[in-house]
Design goal:
single chain, about 270 residues, alpha/beta, seven-stranded mixed β-sheet, globular
Length: about 270
C-alpha cells in the first residue's frame, strides 16, 4: 500500500495521521493516483549534467578542483557541506535534501535514536550527518576516492553534536560484500540511499547491494529517495518493487523526487 508523509514543514500530520489541510496537501504533493507514471520525467542524458553545470555557473570556479560550500539547517543545527564540481559524488543532490527533511519531520514514524544506520553512496555525507544528529549510529560508505571529503564533512558537522560518532567505510556496489560486510555481524536497522539511480553501468550492482543489506530475516528497512530524471529511473523503480516489499512514503512533484521504503520479501 502506498502512503504519503511529510517532507516540507508547510504540511504537517495530526495525531490521526491525516494532513492538517487536505486541500493544501493535495496541491503540494500531487496525489500519486492522479499522476501518470512519466509525468515530469526528463529523458535526455543532459538532465543530470545540467544540474551540475547550474552549480558550476553559479560558483564560477577559477581552477579545476575548486571546492565550495553549501549551507543547510537540519535537526536544529547549521550544516556546512564542502562540495566539488568535478564529480557527481561530491555534490549535494535533491534526493538527499528531501530525505533529510523527511527524516527530520517524521521522527515518530522513523525513529533513528540509537539505531544502526548505513548509507550507501553517501557522497558529501549530508544525509549521514543528519541521521547522526538525529541520534543514529551511522556508517557512511562510498567509493575510496570519495572518502576524504566525506570524512571531512562528517567530522566537521557532527563533532560534539552527535550522540554517536559516525564511521566511514569504503564500499563498491556488488563487490566483496560478504567479505567486507558479513552477515549477521553487519546488520543495520536502516539503510539510506539518495539520488543513486541515473544512467550508469552499475544499477544491477546497486540493487544487489541493497539486497545484501536488506535480506529476509534482517528486519532492515531501506529508505531510498531519488529525483526521477530519466525513463531508466522508472525501470529501476519497477525492479525495486519486484525485489522488495515497498511503499511510497512521499512524492514531491516540484522537485520530481520520490521517497520509497523497502523491506525484504519473506
Amino acid at each position: 500500500m502506498e502512503r504519503l508523509s511529510t517532507v516540507s514543514p508547510s504540511v504537517h500530520q495530526n495525531p490521526s495521521g491525516r494532513t492538517a489541510d487536505m486541500d493544501e496537501s493535495k496541491r503540494f504533493w500531487g496525489p500519486v493516483e492522479e499522476r501518470g507514471p512519466t509525468d515530469g520525467v526528463l529523458t535526455g542524458p543532459k538532465a543530470m549534467t545540467g544540474e551540475a553545470l547550474d552549480k558550476r555557473s553559479i560558483w564560477k570556479p577559477k581552477r579545476c578542483n575548486t571546492l565550495e560550500h553549501e549551507s543547510f539547517c537540519f535537526a536544529g543545527y547549521d550544516i556546512s557541506i564542502r562540495e566539488s564540481v568535478d564529480t557527481y559524488g561530491a555534490l549535494v543532490w535533491p534526493g538527499a535534501t528531501c530525505l533529510c527533511q523527511f527524516l527530520e519531520n517524521n521522527q515518530q514514524q522513523v525513529n533513528l535514536m540509537d539505531k544502526t544506520v548505513l548509507e550507501i553512496g553517501a557522497g558529501t555525507g549530508l544525509l549521514s550527518i543528519v541521521a547522526s544528529l538525529l541520534g543514529a549510529r551511522v556508517t557512511a560508505t562510498d567509493l575510496p576516492e570519495i572518502l576524504s571529503n566525506l570524512t571531512f564533512n562528517l567530522q566537521r558537522n557532527t563533532k560534539s553534536r552527535s550522540r554517536h560518532a559516525p564511521q566511514v567505510a569504503a564500499l563498491t556496489w556488488g563487490q566483496s560484500l560478504a567479505r567486507d560486510f558479513p552477515q549477521p555481524s553487519h546488520r543495520y536497522d536502516y539503510v539510506l540511499a539518495a539520488d543513486l539511480v541515473f544512467p550508469h553501468d552499475y544499477l544491477k550492482e546497486l540493487l544487489e547491494t541493497m539486497q545484501h543489506f536488506c535480506r529476509p530475516g534482517s528486519r532492515t528497512t531501506l529508505l531510498w529517495a531519488n529525483k526521477i530524471r530519466f525513463e531508466s529511473d522508472l525501470e529501476f523503480v519497477e525492479s525495486f518493487k519486484k525485489t522488495f516489499k515497498t511503499a511510497l512514503l512521499a512524492e514531491l512533484p516540484q522537485q520530481q523526487v520520490r521517497i520509497y521504503e523497502g523491506t525484504a520479501k519473506e
